[in-house]
Amino acid sequence: MRVEDTDGVRRITFDRPQVKNAFTAETARELADALDGLAAETHDAAVLTGEGNAFSAGGDVEAMADRDETAREAYDRVRGTLGRVAESVLTAPVPVVARVDGDAVGAGLSLVAACDFAYASADARFAASFVNVGLVPDLGGTVTLPRLVGLRAAKELAFTGDLVSADRAAELGLVNDAVPATELDATVERTVERLASRPTETIALAKEAIHANLGRPWRDGLEREAQAQTLAYDTDAHEEGVAAFVEGRSPEFD
Predict the structure, then answer these.
(1) Distance (Å, whole) CA 150 – CA 154
(2) Which pairing describes strands 96-100 and 125-127: parallel, antiparallel, or unpaired?
(3) Tell me: the pLDDT tens digits for 152-202?
(4) Cβ proximity of 158 and 130 under 8 Å
(5) Do residues 233 and 135 touch, judged by C-beta distance below 8 A?
(6) pLDDT value at position 220?
(7) Residue 252, Cα to own-chain centre: how many angstroms?
(8) Which residues pair with 126 in a beta bridge?
């Protein structure tokens, strides 16, 4: 992962294109550290993007095949890595902007949902693909998706794992806009420049208040999410989903 600070903007690039920028526990910790290092006094915004033809494919499914951990260890890992990333995005004192050029699936989609702004190239695709490997949405997905796209659409995404187009994502409110790939950088930069012209500390206060007033505290939501994911890790569906992925076949769920 590359982290660059330029003119008050922290640009974070996921740089594992050979695995479509899939997350490992270490990647999640690095991302959370980079977000926790943001300060309203020195930063105006952060931009997240992926190298290559994907924003992020989410969790590293092949790594899951070799995972051997207790329920307590699974909970601690989920809450302490992907859950921590969601918390870092939601509490960042500056706006976090997702620049999505390519697929954002699984935890990649959840990360987009957690960001304050998101812009996608017209050929980007999105999926809450957790169900395809027998898991529930993490990285805040169960917290942010219903609030962004509504309850029914969130269930459709989470229960089916189907890919949706960038245009559909924009219709749902998952992204602010879907634009031609040639216009993506300019669109993101216009937003960053507009945000930089506003009082950063005021934005930080507004962001905190907006999140606090959304209803159920999101920390409680992240706790429940980590508990659900811990249970999902111990299911036949998860075992079958991972095995099917590794073997290059379609999963056969009961």
Answers:
(1) 6
(2) unpaired
(3) 999 999 999 999 999 999 999 999 999 999 999 999 999 999 999 988 888
(4) yes
(5) yes
(6) 87
(7) 27
(8) 104, 164
Is the pTM higher than 0.70? yes
CA-to-CA dists, residue 170 to 58, 174, 186, 202, 246, angstroms: 20, 6, 18, 27, 32
Distance set, CA 176 to CA 12, 79, 116, 203 (Å): 19, 28, 9, 18
Query: For 92-132, what is each residue's pLDDT tens digit?
Result: 999 999 999 999 999 999 999 999 999 999 999 999 999 99
Q: What is the rounded distance in angstroms from the CA atom of residue 165 to the CA atom of residue 115?
A: 19
Helix (H, G, I), strand (E, B) or coil at 100: strand
- Return the closest-CA partner of residue 88 out of 115, 57, 59: 115
In a 10 Å sphere around its CB, with 0-12 CB exposed, 13-18 middle and 19+ buried, how is residue 243 labelled? middle
Distance CA 180, CA 140 (A): 28
